[in-house]
Amino acid sequence: MVTIDKTKPVLVTGATGYVAGWLITELLKNGITVHAAVRNPNDERKLAHLKAASDRMNTPIKFFKSDLLEDGSYAEAMAGCELVFHTASPFTSNYKDAQRELIDPAVKGTENVLKQANQVGSVKRVILTSSCAAIYTDCTDVAAAPGGVLTEKVWNESASLEHQPYSYSKTLAEKKAWEISNGQKQWDLVVINPSLVMGPAINIGTATSESMTLLKQMGDGTMKSGVPNIGIGIVDVRDLAKAHFNAGYMESANGRNIISGHNSSFLEVAHILNDVYGTKYPVPKKALPKWLLMLIGPSVNKSITRKFVRNNVNLPWRADNSKSREELAMNYRPLKETMIDSFEMLISEKIVKLK
Ligand code: NAP
């Protein structure tokens, strides 16, 4: 049980990110001063939405220069904070060297931030943004989980540097976090394990998250011939912000927490978008056949290997979100609302084009 003083500032790493943007908005809305750790505090374009939120809520935000790979670079930002939200970690399929671009920042970054917490006496709780990717890699892992359902007890044992290295990066980073947390008694660790995050981005002009890449591809015609029918969990980015906030301030928050609103699939998402927007926009309408994905997948996207297609296509995704509802007071908004709000953002930003 940890009580966090709401008059003290909180640190958010990766403050420029898609997930962090909504978390920071939630914190500022509650009158909590935010120490925002960013790689470049002079990048006005990347910080504009955060400064605007701070002005709107009349609550201070201070920017600090920090890099996951630079030891000690979170010291200044963490000073005086009781609560640390560690969200920074690369989430992209656009990499050349998985070790250098995904694994190192995820693992060394977690080590850097959490070891810093050991040095800063004010820190009482660290919230780590892990992922359901630290629980499973492929839908075949879902099928193999007890009862065919992912829970907080399940760990990803199938990702590797060669197979789904992003999932591997999140698994190794979360393991490192538990190792460091178990070696000390000053602060407690609460882990957030979100499924795929969808919903409008408050950083749309500068968003790099893979979530945004996927969303754009669903509206810009890239997927107009169809989507792979792959089971996936989905959570709204605004619900995820609430989960982080509650994990920070609810005294009893603990352990790993699956944050996922819906056991869904890319095909269900396509059907929702097609029902509402299909006559005007080039949204996906149907599932791509497995044989076609086997044939062309690897040349379209390097993550869609034959092994990935074999282990995921036409298989469902199921996770148990009851811990989040019972212990973190989570209520999840309908998937249709998430997808419509996302698509409306793409329309207003002129990211999707009429057919
Ligand atoms: P994002 O928008 O790309 O945010 C990633 C953040 O990490 C950015 O602020 C980025 O800073 C920062 N970062 C990357 N490398 C860094 C480095 N070397 N030093 C300092 N900062 C660095 O992605 P997101 O979707 O919001 O992801 C945020 C977190 O949620 C990640 O931990 C991700 O694994 C997790 N997550 C995301 C999803 C999802 O579907 N989106 C699902 C589960 C978990 P720059 O702006 O400077 O690049």
What does this structure look like?
With 355 residues, this protein is of the alpha/beta class. The protein has a single domain, classed as Rossmann fold (3-Layer(aba) Sandwich). 42% of the residues lie in helices and 15% in strands. The chain is built from 13 helices and 12 strands. The strands form 3 sheets. It has a 7-stranded parallel beta sheet with strand order 3-2-1-4-5-6-10, sandwiched between helices. Strand 2, helix 2 and strand 3 form a beta-alpha-beta unit. The longest helix has 22 residues, at 98-119. It is globular and about 55 Å long. The termini are far apart. The model has no long low-confidence stretch (mean pLDDT 96). The structure holds NADP nicotinamide-adenine-dinucleotide phosphate (NAP). Residues 14, 16-20, 39, 46, 67-69, 87-91, 105, 129, 131, 170, 194, 196-197, 207-209, 211 line the site of NADP nicotinamide-adenine-dinucleotide phosphate.
CATH topology: Rossmann fold
Helix content: 40-55%
Largest sheet composition:
7 strands, parallel
CATH class categorisation: Alpha Beta
Which compounds are bound in this model? NADP nicotinamide-adenine-dinucleotide phosphate
Spatial extent as radius of gyration = 20 Å
- Please tally the β strands and state the result: 12
Q: Indicate the CATH architecture.
A: 3-Layer(aba) Sandwich
Low-confidence stretches: none
Report the CATH superfamily: NAD(P)-binding Rossmann-like Domain
What percent of residues are in strands?
A: 5-15%
N to C succession of SSEs? EHEHEHEHEHHEEHEEHEEHEHHHH
Domain count: 1
